[in-house]
Amino acid sequence: MPRRGLGRGLDALIPGIEEGEFQELPVSSLRPSPFQPRQTMDEDRLEELVQSIREHGVVQPVVVRRAGEHYELVVGERRWRAAARAGLQTIPALVRDFSDSRAVELALIENLQREDLNPLDEAAAYRRLVDEFGLTQEAVAQRVGRDRSHIAHCLRLLNLEAEVQEGIRGGALSLGHGKVLAGVQAAFDQRRLARRVREEGLSVRALEELAGRRGLSARPSRVAAPAPPDAEIAGLEERMARRLGTRVRILAGKEGGRIEIRYFSLDELERLAGLLLGDGRDT
């Protein structure tokens, strides 16, 4: 049976995952993961996937692990749900043996690669890695390819007032807004500022300045959102990321700058080196 690729990003996170053939498992034998970081799924996008599967089938196999008489999804819950809606009886799957902590990591990383994970779902997954599996924030950052400061900022969102969290979950407030509001200690002030954002369309910088003027922000200089990247730089980041198959950041300074290229294993580093050096090691 031919092997269908999972894409360079995921294969780099799970060295050897594409070794061997996938299996066709009954759709009914799969169960959702209790470690799925995504609490809600966009119905419109899910329906688009259903239509794609009806037309082309399931292009990428899901990744599962055994759970008694069933299989528990590690990666690919949207594909599984869409396949069920499309009426498929079986789905291509790679069966692997992962610990609970590894299953959490992989589910989180796979969702982060799609870059549309709700910030609160992301934060809850980080909290789980810290609380249930004893990882430090630094260890979490290394495993999911994020800066430690980003992990810390996300975790602080979980301490926000419920109304503010709902605004972030619904998209009325951005991650940047949440970072600023997390520095506001009083719940009443958090709610009041969040309402100002919704009613007046305040940017993150405007919110930060408002909180600073009123003396509400505990650490305004540490929670300030970075300025949006120049459109040309953002375009270069996207092109390089597509070419290299991993996350790329261009950090411009007053004189020059630096390029950050993420890798998640020695095999991935070897592949990237081959691409950059042009010696054919990206195959």
Structural class: alpha/beta
* Range of strand content: 5-15%
> Judging by the overall fold, what is the CATH architecture of the largest domain?
Orthogonal Bundle
State the low-pLDDT regions, or none. Answer: 1-9, 218-228
Q: Helicity range of the residues? A: 40-55%
Tally of extended strands? 7
Name the average pLDDT: 80
CATH top level class name of the largest domain: Mainly Alpha
Keywords:
single chain; about 280 residues; alpha/beta; Conserved hypothetical protein from pyrococcus furiosus pfu- 392566-001, ParB domain; Arc Repressor Mutant, subunit A; 5-stranded mixed beta sheet; 14 helices; globular
Tell me what the structure shows.
- With 283 residues, this protein is α/β, with parallel strands linked by helices.
- It folds into 3 domains: 92 residues, Conserved hypothetical protein from pyrococcus furiosus pfu- 392566-001, ParB domain (Alpha-Beta Complex); 118 residues, Arc Repressor Mutant, subunit A, CATH 1.10.10.2830; 47 residues, no CATH class.
- It contains 14 helices and 7 strands.
- Strand 6 and strand 7 form a beta hairpin.
- Helix 7 crosses helix 9.
- The longest helix has 15 residues.
- The radius of gyration is 21 Å and the shape is globular.
